[in-house]
Amino acid sequence: MAVTSNPAPVAHSSQDALHALLCEVLPPQGAWSDDAYLWLTDHSNRLIELTDGLVEELPVPTFTHQAVLAFLYDLFRDYLKARGGVVMFAALRVRIRPGKFREPDLMLLRDRADPRCQDRYWLGADLVAEVVSPDNPDRDLVEKRMDYAEAGIPEYWIADPRDETIRVLTLQDTGYTEHGVYRRGQTAASPLLAGFAAEVSAVFDAPTVGA
Question: DSSP letter at 115?
């Protein structure tokens, strides 16, 4: 009885070949330029940030993260629409400085005609907001706090689903100070946007009632 051997596996699928090619042509970690980073993010649907030659892929957002983010986006959009401002959500890049790009969950400008509002990426913002990611809370609470201060962004909101708080930070000189930490039953207020406020309970109820 003849023994039929299984056909030899194909050494490389087309996807494997493409991956190998990209590994050859893309820069190694630590050597990414602004142009290479922008090219990569122009051709990817992933959230990727750049810090001094290093690229970092951000985690896929959870449902809770997106529901809280959508609720905040609607609040800021409704406030700014009648005032000529603009708010955008990830993925849109903001340049902190040459060599450093972030993709905030939310970023806004009080004037849509502000020259920092560029099509490919923004050159700054009046306010940014992040919803804390459970994989690495220090990314939003510590690292990006320093990054957005470095960029001179006047106000930074941090919504943390873990303890259901909204932290509002204002820029003083080269660092942020806490304007307030707001909890359920309280209303988070913005010193930059006169009359803007967010009910903390409503923000964190969004994942259960629908954003």
Answer: T
Predicted TM-score (pTM) of this structure:
0.83
3-state SS class at 203: helix
Above pLDDT 70, what percent of the chain? 88
Task: Specify whether 173 is located in the same domain as 86.
Answer: yes
Instruction: Convert the pLDDT of each residue in 193-207 to its tens digit.
Output: 999 999 999 999 999
Closest CA to 132 of 161, 99, 97, 108: 161
Q: Vertex 119, ends 117 and 121: CA angle to 5°?
A: 75
Instruction: From residue 29, give the alpha-carbon distance in Å to each of 5, 50, 59, 139.
Output: 43, 10, 18, 19
- Residues contacting residue 204 through CB under 8 Å, at least 6 positions apart: 68, 159, 161, 164, 184
Would strands 93-97 and 100-102 be described as parallel, antiparallel, or unpaired? antiparallel
Segments forming the whole domain that contains residue 32: 14-57
Cα–Cα distances in angstroms (integers) from residue 191 to residues 69, 112, 152, in the given order: 20, 20, 16
> What's 109's DSSP letter?
E
Residues 90 and 141 in one domain: yes
Residues 6+ apart with CB under 8 A from 164: 183, 184, 200, 204
